[in-house]
Design a protein that fits this description.
By secondary structure, the protein is mainly α. The chain is built from 12 helices and no strands. Helix 7 runs antiparallel to helix 9. The longest helix is centred in the middle third of the chain and has 39 residues.
C-alpha cells in the first residue's frame, strides 16, 4: 500500500479503474472455473485434493452447475468491452519500440530485449484486435447484427487465431523478462562494490530500488507463465484440464491485479502530494 493512502481509498481507485474492474471480473471468472472443474481435475493431483477437499468446492446439483457455467461465460463477455480499444495502445507501444533507434553498438541482451518487447506488444495487439473484431457477434449477440459473412465458424476461427497471438505474446514477454533478470543480476555483481563510494544512504536506496525492480520483473514472468495455460489449452498446445487452467488463471490474475493495485496507490500518492504543493 502507498504510504499515507488508506486501503479504502486505494480500493475505490482500483474499483473504478478499467484495468482494475477487468482484473476483478477475471478473478471471479477463474474462481467459478475452479468450482466447475476442480473435482475432475484434482483427481490427477492427489496432494492438491488433500489440501482442498473436492466436496468443499464441488457444485452440488445440475442446476448450480448450469448457473455457474452461464455466469462464467457472462463474466468473460463483460470483460471484453473493457479491452475494446486496448489494441491501439499495444500497437502504439510496438511502433515506438520499432522506430526507436538502438544504441550505436547494442549488446546481444539489448537486441533481445528490444525485439521481445516489440513481439510482446505487437502479438498482444493482434490478439486484442481480433477480439475486438468479433465484438458485435460475441458481446452484442443480436440476431442480424454482425460483421463476418462466415458466421459462427468464422468468429470461432478468429477467436482461436487470437489465442495463438496471445500465446506468442506471452512467450516473448517471458523471454524478455528472463533476459532482464539475467542482465540485472550481472550488473549487480559487477557493481557490487560501488555502493560504499556513494555513501551508505544512496547505496542502500539504490539496492532497495534494484530489488523492487527485480521482484516486479519476476512477478510478471511468473504471471505470464501461468497465463500460458489459458490460450495454450484453448488451441491445444498445453494439455491441461480446465480446473488446473482455472487455478493458474487465478494465480496470474492475482499477480497482475497487484500491479494495478500498486499503480492506483502511486497515482493517489502523487495526487495527494500535488494537493499539498
Amino acid at each position: 500500500m502507498a504510504v499515507g493512502i488508506s486501503a479504502f481509498k486505494q480500493f475505490v481507485k482500483f474499483g473504478t479503474d478499467a484495468y482494475g474492474i477487468e482484473r476483478l471480473l477475471r478473478l471471479i471468472q477463474s474462481l467459478i472455473t475452479i468450482l466447475l472443474f476442480a473435482p475432475t481435475s484434482f483427481n490427477h493431483l492427489p496432494l492438491l485434493s488433500l489440501l482442498i477437499p473436492t466436496s468443499f468446492i464441488s457444485p452440488t446439483t445440475p442446476t448450480i452447475t448450469t448457473t455457474l457455467t452461464h455466469l462464467r461465460k457472462r463474466l468473460a463477455t463483460l470483460r471484453q468491452p473493457l479491452r475494446f480499444f486496448r489494441f491501439l495502445d499495444c500497437f502504439t507501444s510496438a511502433w515506438t519500440i520499432f522506430v526507436t533507434a538502438p544504441t550505436a553498438t547494442p549488446s546481444l541482451a539489448d537486441t533481445l530485449l528490444r525485439w521481445t518487447d516489440f513481439g510482446s506488444k505487437a502479438f498482444n495487439g493482434m490478439y486484442l484486435l481480433l477480439e475486438s473484431a468479433v465484438f458485435a457477434e460475441v458481446v452484442l449477440d443480436v440476431p442480424g447484427v454482425g460483421l463476418w459473412v462466415g458466421g459462427p465458424e468464422a468468429v470461432r476461427q478468429m477467436g482461436l487465431d487470437g489465442q495463438r497471438f496471445w500465446f506468442v505474446s506471452l512467450v516473448c514477454g517471458i523471454v524478455g523478462g528472463v533476459v532482464r533478470l539475467m542482465v540485472s543480476e550481472t550488473s549487480g555483481q559487477e557493481g557490487g562494490g560501488g555502493g560504499k563510494e556513494d555513501g551508505d544512504g544512496k547505496g542502500k536506496e539504490g539496492s532497495v530500488k534494484s530489488v523492487q525492480k527485480k521482484r516486479k520483473v519476476l512477478r510478471r514472468v511468473v504471471a505470464d507463465m501461468m497465463d500460458l495455460a489459458v490460450p495454450g489449452s484453448a488451441v491445444g498446445w498445453v494439455p491441461l484440464s480446465p480446473g488446473i487452467v482455472g487455478v493458474l488463471m487465478f494465480g496470474s490474475t492475482a499477480l497482475t491485479g497487484l500491479e494495478v493495485w500498486e499503480r492506483c496507490g502511486r497515482e493517489l500518492a502523487v495526487g495527494k502530494a500535488a494537493g499539498r504543493s
